[in-house]
Sequence to fold (130 residues):
Amino acid sequence: QAQLVESGGGLVQPGGSLRLSCVASGFTFDFSTVGWFRQVPGKGREGVSCISLSDNSTYYTDSVKGRFTISRDNAKNTVYLQMNSLKPEDTDVYYCAADRSLAVQAMCPRPPYFRSIDHWGRGTQVTVSS
Fold:
């Protein structure tokens, strides 16, 4: 069964690091864009970071710029999110999402109201607390 599988979440102290992984299992890894989303109260899921699998262009939401880095390994069908200098406000469930036609700037921070992203993972919990 084709699915996106996230891993790497956990409990970390403020200032610590985590690396999230999103593996596309059962898919041909020919998406246009893959991204990491989290739930924002009152706004639904919002893109934290997205990456183009064709030209490597990226998007970061302002609150994570300079702290998070998204990367891809096409040979492993995997997209990573390196999270450094974590803050308590980063606590959330992080979802991997992939789309076959949306470009980075169309997918993040959120796609148009009339468009749903093709595939979602089940999420991985990130908790930043002392």
Q: What stands out?
A: The CA atoms of residues 11 and 127 lie 5 Å apart.
